[in-house]
Amino acid sequence: QKHLLGIEPLHPEEIKTILDVAETYVDLNRQAHKHSDALKGLTQINMFFENSTRTQASFELAGKRLGADVMNMAMQASSIKKGETLIDTALTLNAMHPDLLVVRHPHSGAVDLLAQKVNCAVLNAGDGKHEHPTQALLDALTIRRAKGRLHRLNIAICGDVTHSRVARSNLILLGKMENRVRLVGPPTLVPSQFKEFGCEIYDNMEEGLKDVDVVMMLRLQKERMDGGFIPSEREYFHRYGLDAAKLAHAKPDAIVMHPGPMNRGVEIDGTIADDINRSVIQEQVEMGVAVRMAAMDLLARNLKADREAANTGV
Ligand code: CP
């Protein structure tokens, strides 16, 4: 692959390769000296048009640990504010010869569009409601490490699926790896068209969580609700928030995941989020750095091979 724009174009073998390479970076990141030369001499530019804590920090750390020259564009202080378009901004940065562009944008499809205009590798760090591929990959690595496999698991994705690029990328990835995925939440946030992904839909947490191996919670993404119906947080927690009573319906060794940022007391009880026997939320953050290192390493290998082929006329 030239870019990482989504999970959709990836073959299961490619997903496995990314996770296997990421495993080597988990080991590296746990050492005192966390450095490799995989991206030495390459330039990585991070362009975040939407807020981020985990994704931006981990892409920056990933690039630095692999020896890249990393630049974080402060988009709020850029000429976008003077009316420059996304494409003109991308072309401007492209003229500075970056090798890797990491882009988060509020509009679905914006990162794909940008990738068509530049001649470097582009990584989607989340575009609107469309995809968040590195989140799904880090979730997959977390599940594989916790459960010892990434196939034939029963996985419940719960909450605001409609507005979630995390849910979409996970649905695609977990389906490709032959897992059984259930979506759990109110019909306003889990519409029946999601059945096209081959999953079951529940609007009752107790039934939806019955005997699952993995419980993945999502926050209410109010920033994408466009003035539509927003449930009361108190009522939402009562019916759909993960607490000990609801979690008791899952398998006794089921793990609890959340991509973050969390809203404690809305979609998840704080004691469940902090329960180190069930919650793998901090492991997800750790896997995020390793997966982003792996994704950039593999794209850089393809970039170098393409450039060598172009130079030798092959
Ligand atoms: N999970 C995730 O994308 O978190 P951030 O918005 O903090 O990057």
Structure, described:
With 314 residues, the chain is α/β, with parallel strands linked by helices. 39% of the residues lie in helices and 14% in strands. It has helices at 12-29, 54-65, 86-94, 110-115, 133-147, 165-176, 205-208, 233-240, 244-247, 270-273, 281-312, and strands at residues 43-48, 69-73, 100-105, 121-127, 154-158, 180-184, 200-202, 214-217, 255-257. Helix 1 crosses helix 5 (133-147), helix 2 packs across helix 11 (281-312) and helix 5 packs across helix 11. The longest helix has 32 residues, at 281-312. It is globular. The model has no long low-confidence stretch (mean pLDDT 95). It binds phosphoric acid mono(formamide)ester. Phosphoric acid mono(formamide)ester (CP) binds next to helix 2. Phosphoric acid mono(formamide)ester (CP) is lined by residues 52-55, 126, 135, 259-261.
